[in-house]
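Weekly structure sync, notes
Attendees: PL (lead), two postdocs, one rotation student
Agenda item 3: pending single-chain targets
PL asked that the sequence for the first pending target be pasted directly into the notes so everyone works from the same version. It is reproduced below exactly as submitted, 122 residues in total.
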Amino acid sequence: DVQLVESGGGSVQAGGSLTLSCTYDYERRCMGWFREAPGKQREAVATISRAGATTYATSVEGRFTISKDSAKNTLYLLMNSLKPSDSAKYYCAADSTSECSVARAMRIFFSYWGQGTQVTVS
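Predicted structure, written out during the meeting:
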C-alpha cells in the first residue's frame, strides 16, 4: 500500500502562509490535497498529475500552489493569503485515475490517504 504522511499544519493569522508537506512511498498518477472542516463536505483543494499538470478548487486558485519533488517523494501545498474559511484538516491523497483534476477528485474516492494535518486560521 502507498504510505502517505502529512506535516506542516498549524495555526496562523489571516493573511499568513503555511506550507504542507506529504511524503509518500510510491507516486501514483494523481496526487492531491483535500480538506475537511467540521460539518462540511470534504473538498478537493488541488491535484497534480504525474506529468505535473495542476488543477485547483475555485476557492483557493491564485492563493495555493501544489507541487511535488519526485526525487524526494514529497508533495507540497503552499498556502498564501490564508483566510479563516481555509481552516480545516488537510489530507494528502493518491490515486491511479488517469483523469487528474479537482472535478474528478470530487466524484471519486481516492484510493490512498494520509492521516491529515490541522490548519487553523484566525
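Discussion points:
- The radius of gyration is 13 Å.
- Residues 102-107 form the longest helix (6 residues).
Action: rotation student to compare against the earlier draft before next sync.
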